[in-house]
Write a structure and sequence with these properties.
The chain is α+β, with helices and mostly antiparallel strands. About 35% of the residues lie in helices and about 30% in strands. It is built from four helices and ten strands; from the N terminus they run H-H-E-E-E-E-E-E-E-E-H-E-H-E. Strand 7 and strand 8 form a beta hairpin. The chain is elongated and about 95 Å long. The chain starts with a helix and ends with a strand. About 15% of the residues are buried.
Length: about 190
């Protein structure tokens, strides 16, 4: 095909030369614009597919009031989401959500109990741990089974009620949410 277009430039007919020029312009447009755009689209689809390798782990909870997703990390056995204040730098706070494969037995409180920590497991298998620090702050961790995965949410700024709200709003990561995280460069893959 390229030889035919090149040979057409040497034909005495003006219409054949104009046709060859049009074909050449179309080839340049396709190679310069359409081809790379398709390559970017295929690359983006492959990246989405890599994030979706373990869909059973890709869950997101509603961000606590005044917070937003600041970072997410997808790995082969877990999915981590960090929530930080919308006005970071002016407000402090952190909530961490971890979804992991439930290969472990149901949550149990450690024996003997850790110093400065209280732990309870309710009848549904939900475990609440509160670590009290010497400076008066507390770290609250809530672990719950969610289908075939285990959800753990922890914070030093939210109380048990706030953490339960995050767990109660767990939902599979939608395509729109994944696209937004990718566009804002808030999601990474861990190998």
């Amino acid at each position: 095909m390229p030889y035919a277009v090149a040979a057409a430039f040497f034909v005495p007919s003006r219409w054949v030369r104009l046709g060859a020029l049009a074909v050449l312009a179309a080839a340049v447009a396709y190679g310069g614009f359409v081809g790379p755009a398709q390559a970017r689209q295929r690359q983006h689809q492959a990246e989405v597919a890599r994030y979706r390798e373990h869909p059973e782990l890709l869950y997101l909870g509603a961000a606590p009031p005044g917070m937003q997703v600041s970072r997410a990390e997808a790995g082969p056995a877990s999915f981590n989401v960090d929530y930080r204040p919308v006005r970071e730098g002016y407000e402090s706070g952190y909530v961490g959500l971890t979804m992991r494969s439930a290969f472990t037995p149901p949550p149990r409180c450690p024996e003997p109990a850790e110093k400065g920590a209280t732990c309870t497991v309710d009848t549904h298998g939900e475990m609440l741990t509160v670590h009290a620090f010497p400076d008066g702050t507390r770290a609250v961790t809530l672990i719950r089974r969610h289908g075939n995965v285990e959800a753990e949410v922890t914070s030093q700024t939210l109380d048990e009620t706030g953490l339960r709200r995050v767990l109660n709003t767990l939902h599979p990561l939608s395509h729109t949410e994944l696209e937004a995280l990718m566009r804002e460069k808030k999601i990474d893959r861990r190998i």
